[in-house]
Please model this.
Amino acid sequence: MKDPADLYHLTKEQLLTLDGFADKSAQNLLDRIAASKSTTFLRFLSALAINHVGWTMAGLLADHFGIIDRLQAASIDDLRAIGGVGPAVAEAVHEYFRRPESRRLIERLLQAGIEIKTPERVEGPLSGKTFVLTGTLGSLTRGEAEEAIKRLGGSIGSGVSKKTDYLVVGTDPGSKVEKAHRLKVPILDEEAFLVLLGH
Model:
């Protein structure tokens, strides 16, 4: 396989030529690949493995641009205008989408039937609230915590600012805690955060 898009062009006949694949295991794999064709913009962006773009940054970009075409067409200034996106990220994202091989990969993935669902704007108890996370949570991964916030209508920020409503702190937090104290941003430990989520 030359790139991830090749996965979506696999046939059962090709799989059966590989060691360890019988009819049922080949079909199971093809079913799982087919099920992964429906995805969110956030997951799609995360999977592209763009430099400096982890789960949180992918979420910021997905929320701001909404569709892949708008992100691909964005200038460095467009990217820099998003709160939380610094010069290194803007440069890396802009450069990624300028590369012909990146555009070819995205085109092949979409031609293979990848469907990027547009998330609906969710209204909930956390609507209008911006959360920043730091450190490691024990009961949720970073991605699960961010998805839980968004399900309740909240949004995710990448850095602490006056616009941050809550800083959620896990173990081994970074310098964001100090900045939150300085800006008087409310700090939630994991227990208080889970209560807020209704867990």
Remarks:
- The mean pLDDT is 87.
- The chain is about 50% helix and 10% strand.
- Residues 45 and 58 are 6 Å apart (CA to CA).
